[in-house]
Write a structure and sequence with these properties.
It holds the Pfam family SAM_1. Residues 51-119 form the SAM domain. It comes from Homo sapiens. With 122 residues, the protein is mainly α. Helices cover 53% and strands 7% of the residues. The chain has a domain at 48-120: DNA polymerase, domain 1 (Orthogonal Bundle), CATH 1.10.150.50. The chain is built from six helices and two strands. The chain has a two-stranded antiparallel sheet. Helix 2 (53-62) runs antiparallel to helix 3. The chain is globular, with a radius of gyration of 16 Å. The protein starts with a helix and ends with a helix.
Length: 122
């Protein structure tokens, strides 16, 4: 009985969402910010190392973390900083609730770091 109950619970767990594909829009960006928008252009997201603070904020707003995105702005996290963040930085340094912080790190920060390393190691 307990096993079937657990199986039912775990059957409801969804896989993490995939990262949206992004493109760069440099027009009308007087503050030096790289515009981030959903797109399949280039077949991959632009290098997050080039993102300004507002690009990081807009990325997290776009992927559904509207409330938490402001923490990246308050802490002045640009793309280079984002790529250097550890799990502990996200869980404690941004002063976010644990649930969203875990999702932000596991489903977004870590994959962005992995893609950046993969794209820049070859």
């Amino acid at each position: 009985m307990a096993n079937s109950l657990l199986e039912g619970v775990f059957a409801e767990v969804k896989e993490p969402c995939s990262l949206p594909m992004l493109s760069v829009d440099m027009e009308n960006k007087e503050n030096g910010s790289v515009g981030v928008k959903n797109s399949m252009e280039n077949g991959r997201p632009p290098d997050p190392a080039d993102w300004a603070v507002m690009d990081v904020v807009n990325y997290f707003r776009t992927v559904g973390f509207e409330e938490q995105a402001s923490a990246f702005q308050e802490q002045e996290i640009d793309g280079k900083s984002l790529l250097l963040m550890t799990r502990n930085d996200v869980l404690t340094g941004l002063q976010l609730k644990l649930g969203p912080a875990l999702k932000i790190y596991e489903y977004h920060v870590k994959p962005l770091q992995t893609k950046h390393l993969k794209n820049n190691s070859s």
